[in-house]
Amino acid sequence: MAYLGKDPKNVGVRQRYQYVATLGDTSVSGADANGKTLSFTDGQYVDVFLNGVLLKANTDYAYGTNAITNISALSGSDEIEVIVYDVFSFRDTQSQNIRVRHYKTASGGETSISGNDDDGRPIAFSSGTQIDVKLNGITLVAGSDYNTNTANTVAGLSALSANDVVEICVYDKYTTFDTIASSGGTFSGAVTHNASVALNEGATLPTTKHLVYANLPFVELQGDGGSSYASFANIGDTVIFPSIRYGDTSLYNTTTGVFTAPVKGLYSFNGQLLQNSPTQHRATAFMLGNAPTLYQYVSFNQYPAAAAVRHHRVNSIVPLDANETCKMVVAAGPIEFNHQRATTAVEHYSYLTFALVAARS
User: Phi, psi (5° rounding) for residue 134?
Assistant: First the structure.
């Protein structure tokens, strides 16, 4: 949809050209009386006035390339005013008011108009602003019939009579920002958004950049590389990881073992615990909030036979609200976890990672 205006960067919505005719002129083009060169791309968005009277397109005049032609022969000192409304297309954005219209009824004798209009709205514009002014429906000519040399004031009027109606149209200036059309597009720079974003069904996110919160912690037990282990004897004991290797340290409490979700969503808890000499089934679970006995998302050790070290795998998807807490607890114990175990090939750690799989509204 086309809108009135220029390239959207703090600009006005129109350009005014004023010409003083020489006897016999039938067209105007080129530089006007103020040195501005007439230019337009679409005659549909051009208004032409002769001595303040609006002319009819294709009857009183025609369009040439950056020219107004086929005017009836002009008299010397006739004034031709051409107003060009430039055209550009918005993408999806909020609608903008492009002008404000004021009506002011004279009490008699005024040579200027300012203050509030008949509806109590303040007449406001900057000094030198190009505006439209009509007196009892007749368009006045800027510079000769009135001026806007003083901000918020239409001055230089011939003395008005009582009940004369002055109409003032102020064309706003405004700024628009780059937007993306509903059909798609690309932002080239960083974008900050301070509200929620709604995705319609079927919307996809890039496979390599789908984490809304990518700085979640990686936590681990620490030890001497030998036989050190941590023992968690009782059901309900919190499995505490005292070291954060990387990530946001504010989200995991290394003293209490509590993880706090930064946003509402589905979280993946993935890790490996090196179970020390297990002799029967053992299990861990995640406890949400302050529930004292409600264990969810249980992970079992599937190796009942005795062994020096067994891997206790943790792989759970847990739904959490923003700022909801969660911690790993013993569901079937006792359990002893090695901090770290060295081999000739690779070092094994007991660790736990957190990842936001999908944010939720």
Answer: -125, 145
Looking at the structure, tell me whether residues 55 and 110 fall in a common domain: no
Query: Is the pTM for the entire model greater than 0.70?
Result: no
User: The tokens 């429906």 sit on which residue?
Assistant: 137
Decide which of 183, 200, 227 is a domain's last residue: 183
- Kindly state whether residues 169 and 42 are assigned to the same domain: no
Please report, in tens digits, the pLDDT of each residue of the chain (361 residues total): 444 544 444 444 678 999 999 999 999 999 999 999 999 888 877 889 999 888 888 888 998 889 999 999 999 889 999 998 865 554 444 444 466 878 899 999 999 999 999 889 899 998 988 899 999 889 999 889 999 999 999 999 999 999 999 989 887 655 555 566 666 666 666 777 776 666 666 666 544 433 445 567 777 765 444 555 677 767 888 888 888 888 888 888 988 889 998 888 888 888 877 776 666 667 777 777 766 555 566 666 555 555 555 677 788 888 888 888 888 888 877 777 766 555 544 456 778 888 888 877 6
End-of-domain residue from the set 58, 73, 89: 89
Ramachandran bin of 105, using left for φ above 0, alpha for ψ from -120 to 50, beta for the remaining angles? beta
Instruction: Please state the φ and ψ torsions of residue 42, each to the nearest 5 degrees.
Output: -145, 115
DSSP string, 71-95: PPPPPTT-EEEEEE--EEE--S---
Separation CA 102–CA 166 (nearest Å): 8
Asked if residue 226 and residue 352 are part of one domain, the reply reads yes
Sign of the torsion angle spanned by Cα atoms 72, 74, 79, 81: positive
Q: Whole domain around residue 275: which residue ranges?
A: 218-359
Quote the number of domains for the chain.
3
Q: Is 227 in the same domain as 348?
A: yes
Same-domain status, 328 and 252: yes
Q: State the Cα–Cα distance between residues 87 and 41, nearest whole angstrom.
A: 8
